[in-house]
Amino acid sequence: MQDAITTRNLTKTFGSFTAVDAITFHVKKGEIFGFLGANGAGKTTAMRMLCGLSFPTSGKATVAGFDVATETEKIKRSIGYMSQKFSLYEDLTVRENIRFYAGIYGKSRAFIREKTSRVLQQLRLENEADKLVGALPLGWKQKLAFSVAIFHEPEIVFLDEPTGGVDPVTRREFWNLIYEAAGDGITVFVTTHYMDEAEYCDRVSIMVDGKIGALDSPKGLKETFGVNSMDEVFLKLARGAKRSDG
Ligand SMILES: Nc1ncnc2c1ncn2[C@@H]1O[C@H](COP(=O)(O)OP(=O)(O)OP(=O)(O)O)[C@@H](O)[C@H]1O
C-alpha cells in the first residue's frame, strides 16, 4: 500500500541555523501519527513543508503521492489543516463557517447541504447552527474546526496542537472525532504537548533539535526506554536536547 507521507533527509535551514535536520520517516495510510518534540524542536517547520506552505532546503517528501517541492497545489487539495492559530471566523455563524470553507474546495451545494446536517448532528450543534462561532466554548470551536478541516474529505489531515487549552474530557471527545476520521480512512498527522494524547496514536515520532530522536508505537517506545509512560519517554529524550526551554 502506498504511504500517505514519505520524507527522505528532509531539511530546512534558516541562514546558518538548521531547524529541520535530515528527517526520514513514512506515515501509512489511515494511520494516526503523533509528531512530538519540545518547544523549538522543529515540528511546525516540518509540518509547514509537508503542507506545501514552505519549501525544503534539501531532501525530499511526498504527501498523498505528491512532491512537496513541485506539487504544492495538488497537496493543498488533498489535505486538511487545523491549528489553534488558524481557525474559524468568530464573526460568522457555525453554518456560515462550514459553507465558507466547503466553498473553497469547490464542493457542490447538495454535498454541502447534506454533509452540513450530518456534521451538526455529529457535534450535537444543531441548535447552535445559526449562532456566531465567537459565542461557542473553546472545546466546541475546536471540534467544529476539526470537522471543517475534514469536511472536503481529504486524504490526510494535519493537526497542529489541536486541543491546546481545553479540559481533559473535551480532549477525549475531540479524540473520538479523530478516531472516527481515521476509521473513515483519513490519515491523521498530529502534534501535541499532551502525553496522554501521544498514547492514543498508532505511532509517535519525537523530534529533538531538528532530528527524529525516536519513532515507534507508544508501546514500543516504552519498552525501548524501559519506562511505563510516554511522559517518561519524552523526558528521557528531551533531557538531551539543546534547544528546548522546557
Ligand atoms: N522563519 C524562521 N526564521 C528563523 N528561524 C526560524 C523560523 N521559523 C522557525 N525558526 C526556528 O526554528 C526552530 C524550530 O521552530 P519550530 O517552530 O519548527 O519548532 P516547534 O517544534 O514547532 O516548536 P513549538 O512547539 O514551540 O511550536 C526554532 O528555533 C525557531 O526559532
Report on the structure:
- It is a single chain.
- The protein has about 250 residues and is of the alpha/beta class.
- It has a single domain (about 5-90, about 140-240), classed as P-loop containing nucleotide triphosphate hydrolases (Rossmann fold), CATH 3.40.50.300.
- The chain has helices at about 45-50, 70-80, 95-105, 110-120, 140-150, 170-185, 195-200, 220-225, 230-240, and strands at about 5-15, 15-30, 30-35, 60-65, 65, 80-85, 155-160, 185-190, 205-210, 210-215.
- It has a 6-stranded mixed sheet, with helices on both faces.
- A hairpin with a 2-residue loop joins strand 1 (about 5-15) and strand 2.
- Helix 5 runs parallel beside helix 6 (about 170-185) and helix 8 (about 220-225) crosses helix 9 (about 230-240).
- The protein starts with a strand and ends in an 8-residue tail after the last helix.
- Bound molecules: adenosine-5'-triphosphate.
- Adenosine-5'-triphosphate binds near residues 14, 19, 41 and 243.
- Keywords: ATP-binding, Nucleotide-binding.
Low-confidence stretches: none
Which series of helices and strands comes N to C? Answer: EEEHEEHEHHHEHEHEEHH
List of distinct ligands in this structure? adenosine-5'-triphosphate
The helix/strand class is: alpha/beta
Q: What overall geometry do the principal axes of the alpha carbons give?
A: globular
Question: In this structure, how is the largest beta sheet organized?
Answer: 6 strands, mixed
Distance between the termini: 39 Å
The overall average pLDDT, rounded, is: 92
Q: What is the helical fraction, as a range of percent?
A: 25-40%
CATH superfamily: P-loop containing nucleotide triphosphate hydrolases
- Can you name the CATH architecture? 3-Layer(aba) Sandwich
As a percent range, the share of strand residues is 25-35%
Count helical runs: 9
**Based on DSSP secondary structure assignment, what is the total number of beta strands?**
10
Strands side by side in the biggest sheet: 6-7-8-3-9-10
CATH fold label? Rossmann fold
What is the multimeric organization of the chains shown?
Answer: single chain
C-alpha Rg (nearest Å): 18 Å
Number of domains: 1
Keywords: ATP-binding, Nucleotide-binding
Pfam families: ABC_tran (PF00005)
InterPro entries: AAA+_ATPase, ABC_transporter-like_ATP-bd, P-loop_NTPase
Domain ABC transporter: 5-234
